[in-house]
What does this fold into?
Amino acid sequence: MQEAEQKKQQLEQNERLKNCLSKIKNKIIVFSGKGGVGKTTVAVNLAYELAVKEYKVGILDVDIHGANITKMLGIEGKKLIWSDSGIEPVAVLPNLKAVSIDLLMESSDQPVIWRGPLKMSAIRQFLSDVNWGELDYLIVDSPPGTGDEPLSVCQLIPDLNGAIVVTTPQDVAILDSRKSILFAKQLKIPVLGVIENMSGLKCPHCGKFIELFGKGGGEKVAFDLAVPFLERIPLDPEIVTFSDSGQPFIHFKKNSSTAKIMSEIVDKIVNI
It folds into this structure.
């Protein structure tokens, strides 16, 4: 009897998942092979800029153990609520909604100590039971690597429009980014492009460009694996400042050269 009830609930959730995803035109996952390359920064700025361009956007943080989008979007302390329509995402802008495990925790310091099955169950619920409504874009911020979380997203969203792979120029990040690209290819997910982040620093004193982590690794891996190369984003200290203050850099410093590069990346993605 219990097994029959569980099967019924599973079928009902699958139907809700199908219905929810049918209202979302474009689903994009942002991932990286290695942590610390700025993947969440890219995801947040991409989602925010799409919303500024008047698209209806949702951003889903499936980095269960290291959720950061609430900090970068300035919605720390807000909570998800339940309504008759399901779980209501937190509004960042009138046309930008966000969901993160952090929006369910009592404190941002509280660790999530879960094994794989619990994480997969939470991701399924975020995709099936959240009242996303009609969206032009759903941006999924995934943790680094090719484990439970990105695999769950890719399996639960069979019609993913594509993946964006974020890397830094140095060899150790490039090695891992190759795995991310091949992961997407193996699952038959189109790779929309590679972004080489932290690609050099303009010295504030002499104006010279310093290649702190090397240069060209992202472009080379894109060429080697026959996927698009989107752009290089330089290392800009103000990205850190604005991210920590909950103000997406791409909008709040929109006249800076780095923000303009980010905006060009968004335009390329929209036009793919």
Observations:
- The first helix runs from residue 2 to 21.
